[in-house]
Structures are given as structure tokens and as C-alpha cells.
């Protein structure tokens, strides 16, 4: 957290400062800058009166308060006298209340927060101009050394200089309204109301001894169905109180010029322009469900002040401010986006078992996890684990899971990873060591890379195959090793055809780049090259070609069965042949295999049915899909649900939910566990198990996803490249020694963390204050 520092660097060069907006961020920045240099001339322009304020209570984290304490103890002490503190969260759903403790919150009224900051600014000599709209930022910038634009989500500064700031504003699907109750709730309360119009939710928390903030939220279609779109503010307030009469104990709600809003996520490609800088909601917004708006604005003010004092000139200071804050804000916005989406999709979760629902809500942003929730409230977490079915002293990831006749000893999957190390499709010693090591490493299921069904279906010359018996014999050597040397471990094969993404160089020689020589002809749903002007143009498969490809999959499946694989996965993702049929961006056919999604599903389902017919009935079969193309006009989450349902109805035992890699112009929203919301959506909409994949990196993530009901299995790729024994080490780190993660007998002596040299010095014998 940035704090106050000595007056050095550029502090003396920034003399005249204008602040646009008198919210917490703008006021706090003004007070800090004035405190550090009393000779500065600082003016805050606020169009409203000093006692005007929107909203009711604000929540600040211990981290933010720590920064305030170091930067301005006087403000910290004033806030401390006002705070209402509590540490429990109540989740009320279908008449049952589940309470989780140990969370730690501090809140106060927004009006009181502003009064404290007004008093501090006035005492320091900051000019406060209330009921005074600020002049345009460009005009202020001409006569001031620094202009701080703290003018909120509807920032006029950002709009006027959009070409410089590069704003992006995204609307969302829920409507919400800020209200208040004239009594103090005794916990942070989430309450779900299943009404004739649809699902509604209440977010409530105390902010004074006699007052609570109450936010009512719902999908826009529910809002309209309830007639709230035609209500005046008073009627909306009355009706919201009736929807949540139990939470309010029959007491009324009140508003403060409250209106129904749709949240907007604001980002900017740059936060400064010349000597004008954005802070708070003008620069970025985060959904209220993680309570970060005021927190981010105050932290922006702290960081901006510190950078101005530390850097040699203003341009360097503004660059340093953005470099410091942008990663923090991006992380918060990712968490806020996950929370926002969870509440948008709330209707999909209401049928979950009660404790799972509560755990799912608490971990929705992925910032609260199984492990830290267990530290906060062990009894609550133990009850969730019991409802999940964890055996005693067993983490969720080590509970077994059955797919048809295959029982997996744990929920960890080594995700398919292309190794590009075969010759003529033949897996060799490298594949034996690679796959054998991961199976020995404790995973319940180890998957091969995409195994190609024909020479023309390879991605690169280094890809493995199952188009001849020699390859099948080589794979048998690997499955025998896994079954013999890692008893209880399962190994699965992923069958696929490269389609238009074939005949390319090895990944480390140029990913998706065509071979310099020795190319083979490509086929696809439509004659569209993967990278226009670079990739080969594939031939569109005709009836004979479709039949031939289908039979190649069938023949490969027969060989996979004889090779001893326990599970078969059909690769319908990442822009390869079958995926190319599913996406409207890659399938432009006008026959029965194109057009609508039902038509685009036709050939992948035809292949699935043919493979399922020859694959042993007792062995499970899964399908990997790209749940979104991350591109306009492509497959989206709604399509993914339809695709998953179609495969489930045809007998798929699980859906492996990946995303993207279908078109090169994709724009993924990378981040921790960034693909798991798509698995979550499918699992809680379609009656089919799902495998989640995508930047799942820790065993805590795995446990959290499983307990929340977002996935049944978790597939990890890069963590298993970093550590082939990732699963065994996860067991050791959790103190688990049960049957879900047995150490191979030759490795048993290594099942404890090796001792290391001492790194701490002797403790001081005496400490002087």
C-alpha cells in the first residue's frame, strides 16, 4: 500500500492542483497532497452541495485502512471512531440461513466519510467549491500543474478526451437499486427471493448503529416482469421491502434519490493525458458485490500522492502511478467480473444443495477459496465438505468419482498437452516417460495429447497418431506401464483431426506457421484458411470426405480400445476439424452440415455416435469443446450449453470445457481460472458432469471449484509440466495420506517435504520500542 513519504522528488514542482469531483477519492487526494506540502494551492470542484450524497454505507478493507493510517493518522482516527465492525456473513435461501464467520468488515456512512474528509481538507486549507461545476479539464490544465479527474463513472473528463484515454464501457444484464433500512443488520446478509417474476437478491450490511445499506438486484427481464421498470422511486422502495420482508422483519426501506441502475464496467487504455489524470470510477469500476469502489478510489489517491512525491517530474509520476495501480485494479476487476457474472446467473444455482449454494456464493469471485474459508470458519467448511461427500480427513480433490465403469481415485486430470515429439505418428520413449511420470505423480486420470486419426489429420509432423497397428502397439506399451506401475491410475486418449490447422511447424519453430516443405493437403468444414494470407486454404469436405473422416475416427477408436485406454475423449475444440463444424465463424456451409447450430452439430454428433458404438460400453467417453470463440459472432456461452446438452443426450459421460483457439482474431479474457465459468454454466444448466480447465494452478483452486459445484473434475496442464508429481505434492501439503493419492512404493521415502537449511537468524534478546 502506498503511504506518505518525505517531501522529495517532484513534490515541489506540482504547485497548483485542481480536483474535479468531491467524492472520497478526490477529497482524499487533495488532503494528502496539501498535507505533504502546505504551500500548494489545491481546489476541489464539486457540483453538489456538501451534504448531498448518493448511496448509504461504504465498506473499507483492513488493507486500505492500513494505508490510510500510515498516510494520515488523523483521518484514520476519525474514521475509527465511526466504524461499524462485524465478521459474519449470512446467506438466506429457501428459508434456511447459513452463517460463515471470520471475514472482518468495517463500514461507515458515506455522508459521514465525506464530512470527515471535508473537515480534513478545510483544516489543511484546501479550497472546497461546492455547488460549482468544474470548468473543462483542458481549461483547468492550462492554468494548473495537475488536474485530478475524480468525476466518477460518468466522467465528463474521460468523455471529452476519449481519444487520449481510450475508454471502454461495458454494460451488464442486471438491474439494481441502492436503498437503506433504519436498523443495523447483525451480519453481511445475502438473501435470495424466488418470486413469480424470477429470482431476486438482496445485499445488505450495517453502516451505523441504526442503519444498513440494502441493495436489491435482479436480471433485467425479472425487473421488467415485476413491473419495476414502470415504478416511481417511492413505489420501487415499497415493493422491494415486500419482496424481502423476512430480512427486514417487516420494516420499510428508504431511498436517497435512488433509481434503478445497470452496472457499467469502465476501463481505459491510459489513465493520464498531459497533466490530467483519472482516479477512481473515472478510471475503472468494479462491481459493488465485492465492495471495492471507494476502496479503489482511496487507494488510487494514496498511490498517486506517493508517486508525485517519489518521482523527479510529473510525467514520471503519472507513469509510475499507472504502473503501480493498473495490475492491482485489473486483478480486482477480474474478481468483480466473476462476482457480477455469478449474480447474473444466480437462477442456475438456486437448486444446489443448501451448503453448496452458500459456499458457491462465498467463493464466487475466486478471492475467497476453500483453504482460506477453512481458516476463517472451519466448522462451516467442514459442513460443506460433509454435504459434498468427502470421506473423513479427505480434501474434496481426493474424493473418488465414477464415470460409467471407471472409478477415478481423485478429481485431478492431467490435461492433454501436445508434445510434438513423435515420428510418423509413433509414440516413443519420450511419451512413455512423459505420461508415465504424470501417472506416477498421483493424478486420477492422465490424458494423452491429441492423437490424430490420419496422417492428414496431424497438426505437425511431430504429432502422434492411431491410424495403424504399429502405433496401437506403441500406445499399449504406455498404458501397460501406467496400469502396472501406478495401480489405480487411469489413462485416457484424446482423438482428433487437425482440420484447417494442420501441416504446420513444431510449436517452438513457429506456432500455426505452415511447413516450409513437405506439406500435406488440408480439409475442413469450409474452405477458409486459419490465418488468411499465411495458412493453406483447406478443401471443403464433401460427402465422401465426411464419410472417410468418420471411419478414420472409428478405426482409431477401435485401436484405442485394444491399446488399453480407460477413457476416450473426442476433440471438438480449439478450431480443429470437428470444432470447425461447430463454430459459425468457420462453418459457412449451406448443406445439412451448416447453417443453424443444429446443422453445425450434425457432423460432430455423427462422429460421436459412430465412435461410441465401437468404444466399449463400460468405458466412458467425453467430449472437449470450446465454450466460446472469444470473437464477435462466434460460439458463445448459450451455444456452449446447447452443444453440451446435445452431446450429453447422445451419451457423453462428461464435457471437457475449454475455450477459444478457433480463430486467430480471438480476444480471451485471461486470468486465474478464466475458463471455469463456462464449465460452471454447463454443469449447473445441463445434467452432465464437467471437466474444468484453464489456468487452474493450485490445489486450493481445485478444492474450491469442486465444493462450489462448478466442476466435477479439474484438468491442469502447465502445473504438471512444472511438477510431474503435482498431485502427490498437493496431498502432502494438505497432510493427506489416504487412498486418493497413494505414493508409488519406490517413491514412498520422498512423501515428506525434504528438510532445508535454516534461514532465520537468532531472535533478538531485547527489543527496544
How would you summarize what this structure contains?
The chain has 769 residues and is an alpha/beta fold. It is 36% helix and 19% strand.
Walkthrough of the structure:
The structure is a single chain. The protein has 769 residues and is of the alpha/beta class. It folds into 2 domains: 14-344, FAD/NAD(P)-binding domain (3-Layer(bba) Sandwich); 352-736, Aldolase class I (TIM Barrel), CATH 3.20.20. The strands form 6 sheets. Strands 19-20-21-24-25-26-27-28 form an 8-stranded parallel beta barrel, surrounded by 7 helices. Strands 6-5-11-12-13-10-14 form a 7-stranded mixed beta sheet, sandwiched between helices. The longest helix is centred in the middle third of the chain and has 31 residues, at 314-344. It is globular and about 85 Å long. It starts with 15 loop residues before the first strand and ends in a 36-residue tail after the last helix.
Provide the spatial order of strands within the biggest beta sheet.
19-20-21-24-25-26-27-28
Helix content: 25-40%
Tell me, rounded to a whole number, the average pLDDT: 93
Biggest sheet, in brief? 8 strands, parallel, barrel
Cα-atom radius of gyration: 29 Å
CATH class of the largest domain: Alpha Beta
CATH topology of the largest domain: TIM Barrel
Annotated CATH homologous superfamily of the largest domain: Aldolase class I
Number of strands: 28
**Helix-and-strand structural type:** alpha/beta
Q: How many separate structural domains?
A: 2
Strand content: 15-25%
**H/I helix tally:** 26
**Low-pLDDT sequence parts:** 1-9, 765-769
CATH architecture of the largest domain: Alpha-Beta Barrel
| Cα-to-Cα separation, first versus last residue | 24 Å
Shape: globular
GO molecular function: FAD binding; FMN binding; NADP binding; NADPH dehydrogenase activity
Region (Disordered): 743-769
Domain NADH:flavin oxidoreductase/NADH oxidase N-terminal: 397-731
Domain FAD-binding: 145-333
